[in-house]
């Protein structure tokens, strides 16, 4: 079965057991939301860093699919195909 | 408690815009620092819980990127624990998410394990397991006034929680909403702001909507509380049924801080700021003011403070310890932290050039001072 990879920024890797890439098997397209459910299922602290308790993506967390930030696509409903890579990058906000 | 002995020491916790610093001392003058802990996260709330024979430091952490959470340490910051499922989060169905934890308040000795929290959006929370899991207070969350509460500049939050050690009285202060009181341990809530002006509203004497900045209880007089408002310093002697001004004698009636003595009746501290146009210490001269007669008179205290200081002191950037005489501590938005071992008569600058100081808490703890380790 094909996989979908989620690449974590270094600052979040300690919350995923030190892994830089989380993968989940996929035999078809899944939404970013379902993908996050899958790869963070065993890492609840990591899950909370990305999304708040309503499920919304935190304001300064950016997720890229095919080089496009998902807010410009369909947000967490954006579909990811098997074999694709998803990037999680913190925005440059802050002072 | 009486004078210090060799088996006790002091812990000072300084929450800033970019992390937490911890310090220990035996004389409240020489401090051994560790930090920053939680670098690049703000620490707007700290609770030091010395009940149950241990020292637990609880912090409200907030990263601009990664959100808020509560962590705790039982070893003076050598290690931190964040409960795996999260200590504080809104229940499903509320549609709300915690933005910032503004207050962490360990309850009385008689209720070990109980810790209260105040958060943004305006909400009060209660833990019965030493701050590891908090439950939303539904009585306040479902209050019919909630849709009318507003946001101050810093956000809409419940920032002060005062619990009566002997009974079921709980007072909460929120910006902006004013003071709310529960007589049944937090089940039901009523606004209690009579006598407090809200000059910025069409009706300057509303039932609620006041911009209270901080409240504190008199430890020795039942039913007496003090309030520092957005203009106005007040006292109540009847459990918040009526408030009266005690601002006379202060150089300004604006400010954020309100501290009370850990044991002695009538003693409170404020740090006046000139407002609304300036929001700096009056004339750029930083001073703490203390009353020993419940607000009838005030004494200016500035020994050891800088000649010139243009930074404000925020509502939780000040604290007292429980020693005799009581220690008084505060920090500025310019990152200076001052400590007094004699109730404010003289201050020592214990740290300088930190990020903006958001929260300061101090406590007397068992055991000789140890150097808190840097981590997180």
TrEMBL record, chain A:
Pfam families named in the record: ThiS
InterPro entries: Beta-grasp_dom_sf, Mopterin_synth/thiamin_S_b, Sulfur_Carrier/Prot_Modifier, ThiS/MoaD-like
Identification of the protein by name: Sulfur carrier protein
Native source species: Arthrobacter globiformis (strain ATCC 8010 / DSM 20124 / JCM 1332 / NBRC 12137 / NCIMB 8907 / NRRL B-2979 / 168)
